[in-house]
Amino acid sequence: MTRPARPAYLTAVQESYDAVAADYAARVKDPAELDPLSRAMLHAFAEDVREAGPGPVMDVGCGPGKVTAYLSALGVPVSGLDISPKMAGLARRAHPGVRFTVGTFTGLPCDDGSLGGVLAYYSTHHTPPGLLPRVFAEFHRALAPGGRLMLAGHVGDGEHLRPTRAYGGRPVSYESHLLPPDRIAGLLDGAGLTVTARLVEGPGSAAERASAAFFARKPGGPRPRTAEQHARPSTRPAAMDG
User: Fold this and answer.
1) What is the per-residue pLDDT across 126-167, written as a single tens digit (0 to 9) for each?
2) Engineered SS bond to 170: which of 20, 156, 193, 228, CB 3.0-4.6 Å?
3) At residue 83, does pLDDT exceed 90?
4) Of 19, 52, 29, whose CA–CA distance to 171 is shortest?
5) 8-221 has which fold?
6) Are 229 and 209 in contact (CB under 8 A)?
7) Whole-angstrom distance, CA of residue 160 vs CA of residue 234
């Protein structure tokens, strides 16, 4: 049986990130160096998936694994996935205590309903908009009922960027698609994922781009706690020593 041809955009993404892997890893910030709001969102996701607990977490498009390792240090049972073998290799060498594999968004290496969380952190913008429903449907397939998704990335008014060089002037052939936040939220909803929160940040300078983070969950499973329930003291009697 003949295997279907690999989409050209996937080849472009893999070859580009293989070419820039070392420069990218050297330039991208460690999560501890991010701005307070970005760190707070990662911490909120970590707490949410730890509390929900329906399964492990997969960081899709993990690059050199810095965010994956950060979540692991926060007590999240997480693994990383990237299309670039060189990126995955850098991640394994830098973070030997975390599992990293090579793969794509549309074929996550996990059983149906086996993940407690999916993190897509600045990694879906290379996917052509017409294929995002398939990507989000794959996230839905992989998540357990009640599983959480955090998706973050640059947003725009539908810009289609075609850079030729990046990360130290290395040649690249990938493309980037900057969609409006409402469209991304609508695509997540169309895939059966309930958006529970979103945060849109304007560009900090003329050289930066607007970004957005979306928190979503797959319906079913334990009901999420409300803010009031998080703040309410426990009524259970305290355990006594002795």
Assistant:
1) 999 999 999 999 999 999 999 999 999 999 999 999 999 999
2) 20
3) yes
4) 19
5) Rossmann fold (3.40.50)
6) no
7) 51
